[in-house]
Amino acid sequence: MSNKILSNKNNLQVIYEDNHIIVVNKRAGDIVQGDKTGDKPLSEVVKSYLAVKYNKPGNVYLGVVHRLDRPTTGIVLFSKTSKALPRLNKLFAEKKAKKTYWALVKNAPPKSEDQLVHYLKKNPKNNKSTAFVKEVDGSKKAILHYKIIKELDNFFLLEVNLETGRHHQIRVQLSTIGCPIKGDLKYSFDRSNRDASISLHARTLSFIHPVKKEKMQFTAPLPNESLWQACED
Questions:
Q1: Rounded CA gap, 104 and 68, in Å?
Q2: Which residues contact 194 (CB under 8 A, 6 or more apart)?
Q3: Angle at CA 85, nearest 5°, toward 96 and 162?
Q4: Distance separating alpha carbons of residues 94 and 90, to the nearest angstrom
Q5: C-beta separation of 200 from 144 below 8 A
């Protein structure tokens, strides 16, 4: 499916929209849903966009289907109707929505392609997860698959597919094998990116439309940064 990116004064990049769903390309630093920081979340930006576009005077309905970490970029799906939201939630809960991520790492992973299995335990105090090779009290099993899809001058571009959706899963699992994501100080990369992002991008999303029952597939354009742009050459 072709993705025509539409931008507006809120710098919101709309990849696709119909009566029931809206797909956007999240910028680094945006939070998907409101949190204790009080910063305006992406969900409210999308609501404002819809209110203006359709001249809606009252509250605009918008359902949050899934989230991305604040420093990451890429594809986020929202529901525009209460009919679509529970169906989309069910798709994601049953792992019938396929998400592919791209990650830039400085160190070559041990294998060019592999499955990683760890047990992750979240520490709410520092909002960080720790990976263990065996199950420990309070841990959850985490599985992902990665492969190298491009070698750059000083970095490797990995394609990552998740079997589970754990807290900071890609970040902590790649760091555990010696491949922290570029800019991710929380998980052992040595310096931050200029914009405080980490080089993890939710690249594609595919799922069955909750109402039309058609297969939908979307690709989020890469950030406008030289290293990311080199990934498309």
A1: 17
A2: none
A3: 30
A4: 6
A5: no
What does the pLDDT average to over 36-43?
Answer: 86
Residue with the two structure tokens 């001249």:
55
Give the tens place of pLDDT for each residue, 180-200. 999 999 999 999 999 999 999
Token pair belonging to 120 = 């992750």
- Decide: 154 and 108 in contact? Cβ < 8 Å: no
Q: Quick one: how far is CA 128 from the chain centroid? A: 17
Q: Which helix (H) or strand (E) holds 172?
A: helix 169-176
Give the start-to-end residue ranges of the domains of the chain. Answer: 13-230
Higher pLDDT, 109 or 232: 109
Catalytic entry in 18, 69, 137, 153: 69
Dihedral angle, C-alpha 170, 146, 184, 139, nearest 10 °: 30
Distance separating alpha carbons of residues 91 and 32, to the nearest angstrom: 19
Enter the CATH code of domain 13-230: 3.30.2350.10
Say if pTM beats, i.e. exceeds, 0.90: yes
158 neighbors 103 (Cβ within 8 angstroms): yes
Token pair of 230 as six digits: 């080199």
- Given a cut of 90, is residue 118 above it in pLDDT? yes
- The answer to whether 77 and 209 are in contact (CB under 8 A) is no
Give catalytic status of residue 69 as yes or no: yes
What b/e readout covers 217-233, taking b as 16+ CB neighbours within 10 angstroms?
ebbbbbbebebbeebee
- The residues that bridge with 215 in the sheet, in sequence order, are 208
Identify any residues that bridge with 74 across adjacent strands, giving them in sequence order: 26, 202
